[in-house]
Amino acid sequence: MRILTLESYYGGSHKAFLDGWQKHSGHEFTLLTLPPSKWKWRMRHAAITFAKQVNDLVKNGEEWDVLFCSDMLNLAEFCGLANKSIQQLPKVVYFHENQLTYPVQVASERDYQYCMTNITTAVTADAVWFNSAFHRDEFLEAIAKFLKRMPDYQPVEVVEQIRQKSSVHPPGIDPVKRVQVQPVLATEHTSPRFTSPVRILWAARWEHDKNPEDFFAAMKTLKKKGLDFRLNVIGEQFRDQPEVFGWAKEYFADHIDHWGYQPSRDEYATALAESDIVVSTANHEFFGIGMLEAITVGCHPLLPNRLSYPSIIESLVEDEQQRQAYLYDGTPKHLAAKLEALIKATAWAQPTLQKNLPQYLWPQRAKHMDKEIRVNQC
Predict the structure, then answer these.
(1) How many domains are there within the chain?
(2) Full-prediction pTM beyond 0.70?
């Protein structure tokens, strides 16, 4: 199959998704992209820019079987500007995120026009793919609430229309290679499987929706109890970041191994591979690629019992009781208690997360998506 692929924001998870799928796919992709900056302008002009590029390709005799784009494109506008042959293609949109529920610190900062763009794109598409069931359900619920705020002409029927053509297709991941960690002297609390002291990883964007305050509150509890641990706190940083990072860097100075953005894939992989436990404190996460990547190198996940995390753990661990080893109730107190138990344990119970990981690796994900897009083409 020939897939016309339009990506208005070719960076981060959007780029990783398309690169991974193409690398393992049996289909042929024509990939048109825009740089990953100024996302609001990308959403506003991408339809015009891509329509011109695609129409030029059509004039040169190019043809495709299906159109695939991400949520960053105004698909309705694009179709209105594109050649008739493009308008008639089956259209699939992939939602990495959405502008109705993407976290903003102040509610007034949310631009309703981008919300409407996401809605009209979903209405225009023949199939709507989401990276998690949590994301799908949250988006559909948000659409209903959003449309009911309109003073009149509320098109609430589109919620069910979108639901009927929605499906869940998690992105794939490439396994992070386990690097050799320099051995250290063991202590009486060392698990035979891990180095000592236990190394705790927090890997996320340094923004408020990732809730770093709760993570450092839990770490502060461990430090006050005199427990021995090391910290790897990594992730993309921005000009405006939560103030807690400044305090934490000083307070935990004697515990830190890796800190801040890791500029290369190898450095990122090293930080993951040199960790024993990976923690999330996120208040919002559409999927959780970083958590899965950490699990591929053997990290023990401790995840809040919310968002997409319960379904990820459920897909990896068959036994309900064993799943509780990887979830906490979302509070710093419970997180600290779980971490303390792991630090003090002489051995860790290890239900095999690795056994069910292949479903998230690119060879299997690409095979599944290749099949699904054929269905949409038919």
Answers:
(1) 2
(2) yes
How many whole angstroms separate alpha carbon 333 and alpha carbon 309?
19
Q: Is residue 247 located within the same domain as residue 130?
A: no
Chain position carrying tokens 């800190």:
259
Q: Residue 279 is part of which domain span?
A: 198-359
pLDDT in tens, 129-146: 999 999 999 999 999 999
Asked whether residue 188 is assigned to any structural domain, the reply reads: no
Let me know whether 244 and 345 are in one domain: yes
Task: List the beta bridge partners of residue 198.
Answer: 229
